Every structure is written in C-alpha cells, then in structure tokens.
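User: For my dataset I need records formatted as: sequence, then structure tokens, nothing else. Please produce one.
Assistant:
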Amino acid sequence: MKFSAAWLWVAGVIVMSFAASGEAGAGQERAGWYVGGGIGVNWTSQIDQEGWNRDTYCYPDSGCEPEGRPSPDIPGYRWMYNLDLDAGAAFEISVGRMFNNWRVEFSAAQRNNAIQQQFKSIAYLDGRPTPSPADNSPRHTVTSNSMARIDDLTTRTLSVNAYYDFTDVFERITPYVGVGLGVAFVEISGLHFSTRYEDTANPARDLSEFNSSQNADLSDTVLAGNIYAGTDYSLTDQTLLGVKLTYSIMDDIEHTGSYTMHAMHQRDPAFSNQTTFSGPRQFSVMFTAKYLFGD
C-alpha cells in the first residue's frame, strides 16, 4: 500500500467512531447489531495509463539511427493511454452495530467495469518525441501493426465505516451520511499488447526478432476512502430497505510486467516494463436491505 491523501479519511473514521462510542453511554434509544447487503450499478472515472521500459532498440519503422540495433541515444520508451470505463455492477455485504444515531460498520464490496483503451502518445523515456520516417522516403518501407486492449477493472474493497442517522426527520424514513476507510484489491484483467513488423517492399524479409507481445492480469492493493449518503425505510421493526450512494477514492495502481516476446530478451531474458494507472474515482448507487437484531 502507498501513503497518499486518502489517509486523510483515517481522521474522519476515528473521530466518528469515538463519537459513536460516547453516544453509546448516553442512552439506549437504538442499540444492537445488524447485517446488510446491497446491489446496484457503479460508474468509474476515466483512468490514465502510463507505462515505460528501458528498451534501447531503434526499430526499423521509426526512422532513427542506427536502424534495427540497440542505440546509446535511446534511454527507453514511455507510452500513454486513456481508459474509458463502462457502467458496471456493484454489490456489498456488511455487519454493524447501532449506538443511538451512530453506526459503526465493517463492509465488503465489489465493483466491476469493462474498459475501452484509447492510445494517446508514445515518446522516449526522457520525454523526447520518437522520430517518424518521411512519408515520401522510399528507404523506410517497414510498417508495424500494433494491438492493445484491456478487458475489465475489478475492485474488491474491505472497509470500516461510520455513519450518522438522522432519526428525527421523518417517522419511517431515516436519511444518513457516513465515511469509510479501507483497502481495495484491484485487478485489471486481460491486458494485451502485441506488435508485428513487416517490410512492404520485401514481404519475405524476416523481422520477427523485433516483434513483441505481452499478456497479463495486473493486480495491486491500495488504500481507499469512501463517502456515503443514503436513506432507509422501516418496512418493519427489524427490516430496513433503502438507497445508498457511495463515492470512492483510491490510490494509483502500479504493476511490473514481463513480456512473452521482445527484442530485448536477447540481452536480458528478464526484461520488464512498469505500468501506472491513475487512482480510480468510483460512484455507485445501490438498493440496500438491513436486518436488525436485538441488543
């Protein structure tokens, strides 16, 4: 896990938890354990993907020199993608305890989103743009066919939450707000990248030594902070039905990946790349149910 601004959520959870403990001794208008669950839909903000490696090859389609060999002028490559995420399913289970207007809760949630990956840019590792061959130059006849995709983002979260219930607003309807802090086990599945080279002037020329391929499922464990708002309706004395809104903030996702095929394998069989995904921001709407037990 990485330290970031999400740690600010710790203060909110601690303060509200201590407040809940103080309320517990002030009276017993509401007290007792409950279990709950929810199901709904979530939306995830656009994620920026940035990757880099220390590949020093000058590829035969790039117009650089010396062509087709490692070059001391190339420190490596850096690339950027934008990831657009479709709306996906969300569900949650929880167990908690009431202390009058306060609740302290432990929850487990899962959210899933399909990903649309869009290429943004590529440059050398030091930020210089990679050269392109002149369109009218007969010397550069090599083309590269690249394919990149990512299938899904899956987020599984364990969180400690504190809520304040506004019990005196309506007779059977109880609005509430809350905060939470936890860990998110993030998986980005189905990452694929491949490049194939071909000489259009001489299709029989073998350029397979420059081909590359990567297939991976990326995972990381990051800190997550949540803000909650919702309302419950008392169907019976022990059963509550409601709607819950959740806004989640997570740390950046980082991964070290290997290639199944790469030109640099000739020099370093363990050649790898680094990928960072900007911390997702997720918003979900869930229909919830709670069952209250006696004290």
